Amino acid sequence: MEGGEALDKRIFxxxxxxxxxxxxxxxxxxxxxxxxxxxxxxxxxxxxxxxxLYQEGVQLREQHRSEEAAECFLKALGLLDNDSPLxxxxxxNLGGLYLKHGIFDGxxxxxxxxxxxxxxxxxSIGMMNAYRNCGRAMRSQEQYAVAKQYYDSAFCIxxxxxxxxxxxxxxxxxxxxxxxxTGDFGKGIEYVNHxxxxxxxxxxxxxxxxxLGILYYYSNDFNQAKTYLNKALRSERPGLKMSVYQTxxxxxYYEGDYKTAVYxxxxxxxxxxxxxxxxxxxxxxxxxxxxxxxxQKNAMESLHRxxxxxxxxxxxxxxxxxxxxxxxxxxxINENKIKALEKELEMRNKIMLSNKVFVTAKNLxxxxxxxxxxxxxxxxxxxxxxxxxxMIFSDFSKRxxxxxxxxxxxxxxxxxxxxxxxxxxxxxxxxxxxxxSFYKRKTRIRQQKMELPDDGRSFExxxxxx
Length: 466
Known about the structure:
Elements: H1 2-62, H2 66-79, H3 86-100, H4 104-121, H5 124-140, H6 144-160, H7 164-182, H8 185-197, H9 202-218, H10 222-232, H11 238-254, H12 258-297, H13 302-352, H14 356-366, H15 370-373, H16 379-392, H17 396-403, H18 409-419, H19 424-430, H20 435-449, H21 459-464
Helix pairs in contact: 1-2, 1-3, 2-3, 3-4, 3-5, 4-5, 5-6, 6-7, 7-8, 7-9, 8-9, 9-10, 9-11, 10-11, 11-12, 12-13, 14-19, 16-18, 19-20
């Protein structure tokens, strides 16, 4: 009897141990399932939050509220896993913000991070956009060779997927931001013409026409330059029209049409003022939207909100008053500058018309006849020309030689002729050489005598900086 009871106790003990073991296993399994479900739920929530932050950042960026947009994008990145497909878009938007505000290193790093994300995903369109944006960031740092590599990569993808809109944009950007900046004006003209043949919106078409006008101006083809510049004037954007009028001013000045030059200078100044007024209006509109948003968020604090709103309105009105005063002052300054320019041009003509070199060059620019070609110039004429140039341009030749001591006598004469705005054709006739040979000579002066082989500026821009 006692043995039976002992056996029953052992059986009951084993049963209890088995039940405890099963209970522990059940609890562990339940915990694992709960943790897994919580983890999945948490990851899903984080992704949803990141998506909402990204959308909010995009909207803020469209409203030109850069700091708030960047904050949203950075918060979204903190919520996402490394393999999330959303990371590439966020990095690309961050790069665009950094580039807009002149943070070029940060812009390139962000666009490059976006590129790596799109590569992992095999996203061709994302890679294409990121390559182009990397090129823009490098161009902003004047690293043109590196920028061209990124543009070419974007161009290859756009060609493969036959993205005609992107191809048009890339043709325009490469022609404008690479070939024009590096001085290959012929190639720049070719690329921008390809862009015009493709799908460009009205705004980009105006930019393309303006770019072609500037490229032809740099190539000394003033007639073609005027044709495209006049097409660009169809634009309603004051900033673009200001750039066009500045180029037309330069052409008129070099052609010796000083009355037209002054006219274009006035138009350029007017459009500059209009552009500033437009920017001021956009700023005020952005301030107004920010005030309204803050008023909605602080609806429960009506007293504080009303006080803040009055303060903001006072600030806004103060800004408007300040901008109006500033615009009036700048207009007066520009009017005085134009009057000074007219007097300067008149005085310059009176002074320089007493010199044989200047008169000969001016006649050659106006009429090519046997009489104008039968000129004889001696060293005294050239010495007088350089002296008068120094008188008008504040010792230009002396400052030129001090900056570039390797320049020879004829190099200085060429520089003085360019400084006075004479065309390559006129100067080549004075030097008794072909225009192509003169262009090569200017290149040798810049590369060998001035030691500026990598300078992206034109020969005339280098001289005007002295």
